[in-house]
Design goal:
Elements (H helix, E strand, L loop, with lengths): L2 H13 L2 H8 L3 H15 L4 E4 L2 E4 L1 H28 L3 E7 L1 H6 L1 H11 L3 E7 L13 E4 L8 E16 H6 L14 E3 L23 E2 L3 H9 L4 E5 L9 E4 L6 E10 L6 H27 L6
Parallel strand pairs: 3-4, 3-5, 7-8, 7-9
Antiparallel strand pairs: 1-2, 5-11, 6-9, 6-10, 6-11
């Protein structure tokens, strides 16, 4: 039995005429009549009796009203659920390391708010792992998966990092041909005792023991590179936001890391948060692909 036929049956029973049902359904009366006849053939019984007063329900038709209305309510509930999902409201708080928070999540938040005007997105940029057990955020982005806690963990995407410097700095300092040449340059990196995840210990991979300028914020490091203060290990996805910054020694040095999405296990049953997590994940992947693609188009030096 087709739900659409039941929908037309209910419209006729309520309007008590084919023309009245047709007006409610934006359908011509002859089509309404054909659909009622099709339903009657499927059931094997007449559902309406035509009288001078209009179409009245037969006994068979009267028995069909209750199940047809139940089907109508189910269809309406499903439609309302879709509508709610298409227009999610309320607050969403995302915790993330500041590289992701500064260079990826603003665009993701923009797209989420355009898709769901009633949604409020809060981005928490912290130089540490966000604590979901304490509900510091609804979901978190991390650079390594946690090994404790009642959590759902999803690998989002890989990202790349390279050495980079501003054109002004590169023009004033000795050329770079190999990693050994880094010893003659000023390095920018993390404050060693404030590295909260081993995946962020970039400088040690270069063989350089210490940096001259350091910060616990990757955004501050990038601004120092942009100011011509030295060389830093920067995210490829951040390069397009820093005019004049060029990657160097790309054939000698490259790092690959991953972003992970973390959610509290108790949120598994939340359809709302699941939909938002999927949207955030897709948005981060799309921004990574877009920005790293832009970075690949930028000229490089010292390679």
């Amino acid at each position: 039995m087709d739900w659409d036929d039941l929908r037309i049956f209910l419209a006729v029973s309520r309007a008590e005429s084919l023309s009245g049902a047709g007006r409610r359904l934006a359908m011509d009366a002859s089509t309404v009549g054909r659909r009622v006849a099709r339903l009657e053939r499927a059931i094997g019984a007449a559902l309406f009796a035509k009288t001078p007063q209009g179409y009245t329900l037969t006994a068979e038709g009267a028995r069909l009203v209750a199940p047809a209305e139940a089907a109508e309510q189910a269809a309406l509930a499903a439609a309302e659920g879709v509508a709610r999902e298409a227009g999610i409201t309320g607050q969403l708080r995302i915790g993330a390391p500041d590289g992701c928070a500064n260079y990826l999540l603003p665009q993701v938040a923009r797209d989420l708010c355009e898709a769901h005007p009633g949604l409020e997105v809060q981005i928490v940029a912290l130089p540490r792992v966000v604590n979901l057990t304490r509900r510091e955020a609804d979901m978190a982005i991390a650079v390594s998966p946690p090994d404790t806690g009642r959590l759902m963990v999803q690998r989002l995407a890989d990202y790349r990092l390279h050495l980079a410097g501003h054109d002004d700095y590169l023009a004033r300092h000795p050329p770079l041909r190999d990693l050994d040449d880094l010893r003659g340059h000023r390095m920018i990196s993390y404050i060693p005792d404030m590295i909260f995840d081993r995946e962020l210990d970039y400088l040690s991979a270069t063989g350089v023991e210490a940096s001259q300028i350091s910060s616990n914020s990757v955004a501050v490091q990038m601004q120092a590179v942009r100011a011509g203060a030295g060389l830093g290990i920067v995210h490829d996805f951040a390069v397009p936001s820093a005019p004049g910054v060029r990657r160097v020694l790309m054939d000698r040095f490259a790092l690959r890391r991953s972003f992970w999405m973390i959610r509290h296990a108790d949120d598994r049953a939340s359809r709302r948060l699941t939909l938002l997590a999927e949207a955030v994940a897709q948005g981060i992947r799309a921004e990574l692909a877009r920005l790293e693609g832009v970075g690949d188009a930028c000229p490089v030096r010292g390679t």
